[in-house]
Each structure stands twice: as structure tokens, then as C-alpha cells.
Amino acid sequence: MKRSVFAVALNHRSQTEAWHDRFHQSPYQTPPKTPVWFIKPRNTHRRDGDTIALPSRQQTFSGGTLAVIIGQTARKVAAADAAAFIQGYALANDLSLAEESFYRPAIKAKCRDGFCPIGEPAPLKDISALEIITEVNGVGKQRWSTADLHRNAAELIAALSDFATLQAGDVILLGTPQQRIEVNPGDEVVIRAAGLPPLHNHFSTQAEAQTQPEGHATLFALGLNYADHAAELEFKAPEEPLVFIKAPNSLTGDHCVSVRPDNVDYMHYEAELVVVIGKTARNVSRGQALEYVEGYTLCNDYAVRDYLENYYRPNLRVKSRDTLTPLLPAVVPRSAIPDAQNLQLKTFINGELRQSGNTRDMVFDVPFLIAYLSEFMTLQPGDMIATGTPKGLADVNPGDEVVVEIEGVGRLTNRIVSEQQFEESLK
Ligand SMILES: O=C(O)C/C(=C\C=C(/O)C(=O)O)C(=O)O
Ligand SMILES: [Mg+2]
Q1: CA 288 to chain centre
Q2: Which residue owns the Cα nearest ligand 1 atom 13?
């Protein structure tokens, strides 16, 4: 089944208590006002009974949690109505390396292969104070209650479905306490809760042979991968790639509309070269990286910057809203693009050139990005990397026609509509 697994950080009281002082200092300044969403992409998905390979040099921590399984399309659902959109619940493990920062997406810590096993679902009537128990090698190591979450399942469905349409089979992980449980090769971990099938996983140094995972292809995106763009947002160019993941609900195609939320000041277009992975890539060197590229396309990585908070920047509310990622479906084969690091990118608003740059100015080039990601996770055929945007951001408004273009790759047109126009088009 194709499904998106959304997860929320900092939803357990013990986490916000532990981070309280840090969240009043730089770069955070204030505690988060909205849920801090992240995505567990398909390479992390595993099932009950699967063996999970642990990274060799870093300590991994278990994060037993409850997964809410969505039963029907959910869009702008009020918390009071959310129960009708829940098909059931399952136990899950939001595995992670140590959480040292909440400032940028913790892809390296949370999105490693196998870092999200989810058990079999079951209906449950009341999850308001469900005890989630973690046992390692038969010994109880942790017990926590969903009563200690800041937001319950209904409130999270309401918050997420406000900007992201959820589909049947999508999953929301409710969060974990600050204290996590170490897991080591050889461990048997069982997550239990009354009324749900337990989730058993064996941990090892060896990965089991994986078939092509089910689930949506992952669209990785780069933040601030052009130094001139970083400067215009008053950032320094990054020293390590800033990777985030765009949720599938945000994707649209050529000649589609993108919705500008009401009452915002900054909806920015971003023309980006997109690399499409052609074959499974794990621990690929820079020298070999291009052999794993099927071809190239382009996207417009819209951002509603009013919604930026200094947590998991950029949060899904900024970049993964419905309709905010127009993507050209046609992929130009790698053989047709002799040098992906010398392509002109342009954005036109109502025919006027507003953004212009060249892929030669990427801070981290395509081979580097493939080598970097494949060092800690497996890239699968169909996965994509949106490589960041150059300088030249400007606000767009309902009625604007936005064209992004990359020489030799294509031209992608879309139109901005207001929320009201969009709602009317759905009737
Ligand atoms: O959103 C921001 O302000 C910066 C950012 C992401 C930027 C891009 O998507 C881009 O440079 O293409 C971030 O990760 O904070
Ligand atoms: Mg971008």
C-alpha cells in the first residue's frame, strides 16, 4: 500500500520540559507554536517481525509510539470530527539517533533504512490514556502514557489536514518521550499496548535483503544550496547539505494551480533542478554517483515563509502544503544532459523574468548529494532530489502565471489561486 508516514516531534511533555531552556535561546528563541512535523520516508518502513540493521558507529534509540491509521480522505477536518477519519491504530517504533537539535530536519537521525517499523492495525475505542510499553530482550524498559501528549490524535489530524490532504492508509505517529531506549545488535524489541497486536523487531548489524519498498517515492529537497539564495535569506551557505522531504500531497503537475493561503505576505516560487534516481543506490561514491541517475526534471518548490518557525525548518506547513510542488512529469534521460552542473534556471512571473541562475553555482553538486544521502540511507528508483534554488525570490499572488524553466530539461507552468478560488473549483 502506498502511504505517507507523518510524525510529530516535541509532542510529549517530557520533551518540551527537557528542551525548555534551550528553546528560549538562539537559534530557537521561542517554543514551537504549531506541531513540528516530519516524514518517515519509505526506506524507513518495516513490518512486525522484520530484522532491522543498525548503523555501525552511532547509537540508535528506540521510540515506541502509537500510529494512527487514516481510513478515508481527510481535508480540513475539525478535531471534533476527526474520529470518523481514523481506521484504527498500530504500534510503531520511531527509531532515531540521538536528537541533538530541532533546528533543521533530522533526516540523518530519523530517516535511516528500517527506522520506522509499524505493526498490524486494530480498532481501539479509547486512546486517551493508553500505556505504550517497550521491552528489550524480555525486560520492560519504558512505559509511557498517551495522556502525557500535548496534542491528541484528533488535534493532530486537524492540524495536519488543514494544509495536507490525508489519504486512506496514511499514518500519523503521535510522538515519543524525551527518554529513549538504547538498542544494540542482537536485541529483540517488543512494543506493546493493551488491545493492539505487539510489534516485534530483531536488531542486527546485517540488513535483510529488501525488495523495492512499497510507498511513495521520496522527494528530497535541498535548503540553501545556492550561496546567493542563502545570502538573500540572510543565511551563510551551509557546510553540510540541508535536506528536507516534501510530502506527496504537495505534488501537482504542469498547468495546475497552486493555492496561496489567505492573509500571508510571502509565498515564494523556487525553480529547481530535480534529479531522478534510476537504480538502488547505497554507499555510492561521488565518482560513481551519476550512474545512478535516470534523468532530470524540474519543480517549483513553493514556500509560504510566513509559516516558518525556527524548528525543523522548514516545517511541512511551509513547503508541503497541498499543491505547492508543481513537478514536470517528463524525465529527460541523463544521456541528453551532458553536464547537469551547467544549466540555466529561470522563473517568469506573468512573462517577466524574475529569477535567473545556473546549476554551476550549487553549493553541493548532484554527485555530492547522491553520495551524501546514500551514505546513510538507500535511494530507490523513482526517488528524487530537488537541488535547491538560486537567488531571486519574490512574492506571488492569485492570478499570477508562474513559469519555471531549465534549459534542456523543460518548462513548467502554473497559476496561483486564492483559497476561495480553489474551494470553488472543487465543487
Ligand atoms: O525556507 C527557508 O527559509 C530556507 C530553507 C529552504 C530553502 C529552499 O527550499 C531552497 O533554498 O531551495 C530552509 O531549509 O530553511
Ligand atoms: Mg527549495
Answers
A1: 26
A2: 223
Atom of ligand 1 nearest to the CA of 270: 12
ipTM of the complex: 0.97
d(C-alpha 367, C-alpha 341), whole Å: 10
Residue 396 exposed, middle or buried by CB count within 10 Å (0-12, 13-18, 19+): buried
Phi, psi of 33 (to 5 degrees): -95, -25
Domains along the sequence of the chain with CATH = 5-204 (3.90.850.10), 219-426 (3.90.850.10)
Give, as one character, the DSSP assignment of residue 379. B
So what's the pLDDT on residue 187? 98
Q: Kindly report the average pLDDT of the chain as a whole number.
A: 96
Is the C-beta atom of 389 inside 6 A of ligand 1?
A: yes
Query: How far is the centre of ligand 2, averaged over its atoms, from the C-alpha of 181 (Å)?
Result: 35
Q: Considering only CA atoms, which of 47, 53, 63 is closest in space to residue 184?
A: 53
* Model confidence, pTM: 0.97
- Compute the distance from residue 308 Cα to the ligand 1 centre, in Å: 10
Contact 11, 35 (CB under 8 A): yes
Please give the C-alpha separations between residue 279 and each of 192, 213, 329, in angstroms, as whole numbers: 37, 13, 18
Q: pLDDT tens across 361-399, in order?
A: 999 999 999 999 999 999 999 999 999 999 999 999 999
Residues listed for the chain: 427
State yes or no: cis peptide before 27, omega within 30 of 0.
yes
Question: 196 and 68 in contact (C-beta within 8 Å)?
Answer: no
Asked whether 363 lines ligand 1 (CB < 6 A), one says no
- Is the pLDDT assigned to residue 211 strictly greater than 90? no
Indicate whether residue 233 lines ligand 1 (CB < 6 A). yes
What DSSP letter does each residue of 332-351 carry, written as one string? Answer: EEGGG-S-TTS-EEEEEETT
3-class SS of residue 232: helix
Instruction: Please tell me if the CB atom of residue 227 comes closer than 6 angstroms to any atom of ligand 1.
Output: no
Nearest CA to ligand 1 atom 12: 388
Distance (Å) from CA 84 to ligand 1 centroid:
36
Distance CA 21, CA 130 (A): 29
* Choice among 100-104, 208-212, 214-218, 311-315 with the minimum mean pLDDT: 208-212
Torsions phi, psi of 408, nearest 5?
A: 80, -15
pLDDT of the residue at 208: 64
CB 121 within 8 A of CB 90: yes
